[in-house]
Amino acid sequence: MMQEIQFVRAQTLKAKPQDESKLGFGRIFTDHMFTMRYDRENGWHDAKVEPYRALSLEPSCMVLHYGQAIFEGLKCYRREDGGLQLFRPRDNFERMNTSAERLSIPTFDVEDAMAGLLKLLEIEKDWAPSQRDTSLYIRPFIIATDPFVGVRASNTYLFCIILSPVGAYYANGLAPVGIYVEDQYVRAVRGGLGFAKTAANYAASLKAGEIAHQNGYAQVLWLDGVELKYVEEVGSMNIMFVLDGKIVTPALNGSILSGITRKSILQLAADDGFEVEERRIAIEEVVRAAEEGRLQEAFGTGTAAVVSPVGELCWNGKKIILSGGKIGPVTQRLYDELTGIQWGREEDRFGWVLKL
Ligand SMILES: *Cc1c(COP(=O)(O)O)cnc(C)c1O
Questions:
Q1: Is residue 355 a part of any domain in this protein?
Q2: Distance from residue 295's CA to the centre of ligand 1 (Å)
Q3: Which pLDDT score, from 0 to 100, does residue 323 have?
Q4: In terms of domains, do 96 and 52 share one?
Q5: Of the residues 73, 165, 183, 292, which has the fewest C-beta atoms closer than 10 A?
Q6: Averaged pLDDT score across all residues of the chain
């Protein structure tokens, strides 16, 4: 551990949400946050749990101009016995270092970040809601902070973790969503930032998202950035198909985010006896399989929504209804198994859970 983590207590504490059925997602923030700073002389240092408050940045702050910003998303779950637990948290910080590396941001010691997170959670534990499907969402991020206009990597950075009590990501819970297959805009290309969890990928995605919304679709399914031919991923989720009874998902190719939910679902499915394939999947193959009745289900995977059934795909004006627009049995089963482990209702047979 680099040093002690200082604690500066908030002068006044906020009222916690009364009605846990109305938390929504990402709108309420707790009393404290974890921060540490980077400069060339000291490396990562000045670790603190301090009051959640507005950051003070100069208008010349580099992140505002050149976009060196990375983030993570994970959850703290309350078990039925009242205790709290995390799901594969070190994997998030390791992935954050992968993102950091790509954006020329200095990497950090995963154990320093873990120590900061655990201390923050210890202080904020009463903010973790207990109603079914709720959790305390954890958002670590790093931004470039040099006051400088000119293109280069920043020499100083802020690492921050904030917390938000959340309900289910989609207001109506585990309900099938309609997905618009984007055939004009692209999210990422090989050699670009696709595998990094960075603000820029989301900036690139907003326009297509708006068009999908206008057409009544909840999310965009991205195709590859070169030929617009192969399936990549959905907004903030990886995508999986139940095709000829197998679980098939795009292989990690450099332009897809390596989801922790994705790899957990693949492992669960294989353990359940499903055949699992990670490979290139052409959108034409998906459409043909659907027309021939060989595509049973599709679902997205990601921390926020966990497992999200796809009820409809729209590509090139063609509308494909999946599993009768309902939640398919494989999707439901994998959702139940994963959420069972995450909320501690089922045995943690893979050693994924960290009890606090
Ligand atoms: C975060 C994210 C995912 C899901 O990753 P998880 O680790 O499962 O939460 C998928 N795609 C993109 C683009 C993401 O940013």
A1: no
A2: 24
A3: 86
A4: yes
A5: 292
A6: 95
Which tens digit of pLDDT belongs to each residue from 75-115? 999 999 999 999 999 999 999 999 999 999 999 999 999 99
Domain span at residue 112? Answer: 6-166
Specify the ligand 1 atom closest to the Cα of 91: 7
Ligand 1 test: best mutation among 75, 182, 197, most atoms within 8 Å of CB?
197
- In sequence order, the 6+-apart residues with CB closer than 8 A to the CB of 169 are 25, 304, 305, 306, 308
Whether the pLDDT of residue 214 is over 80: the answer is yes
Per the structure block, which two tokens stand in for 186? 């692209």
* Residues 141 and 274 grouped into a single domain: no
User: Are 151 and 213 part of one and the same domain?
Assistant: no
303 CA: nearest ligand 1 atom? 9
First to last CA, the chain: 19
Kindly report the CATH number assigned to the domain that includes residue 259.
3.20.10.10
68 and 157 part of one domain: yes
The 10s digit of each residue's pLDDT in 260-286 is 999 999 999 999 999 999 999 999 999
Say how far residue 39 (Cα) sits from the centre of its chain: 28
pTM value is 0.96
Task: Find the CATH number of the domain harbouring 59.
Answer: 3.30.470.10
In a domain, 147, yes or no: yes
Q: Which residue's CA lies nearest to atom 14 of ligand 1?
A: 236
C-alpha to C-alpha distance for 31 and 12, rounded to whole angstroms = 8
Ligand 1 pocket list (CB less than 6 A): 73, 197, 233, 236-238, 257, 259-262, 301-303
**Distance from residue 260's CA to the centre of ligand 1 (Å):** 7
Q: Is residue 351 part of a domain?
A: no
Question: Given pLDDT bands bounded at 50, 70 and 90, which one contains residue 168?
Answer: confident
CB-neighbour burial class of residue 73 (10 A; exposed 0-12, middle 13-18, buried 19+): middle
Mean pLDDT, range 219-228, rounded to an integer: 95
Q: What pLDDT, on the 0 to 100 scale, is given for residue 173?
A: 67
Separation of alpha carbons 321 and 178, rounded Å? 9
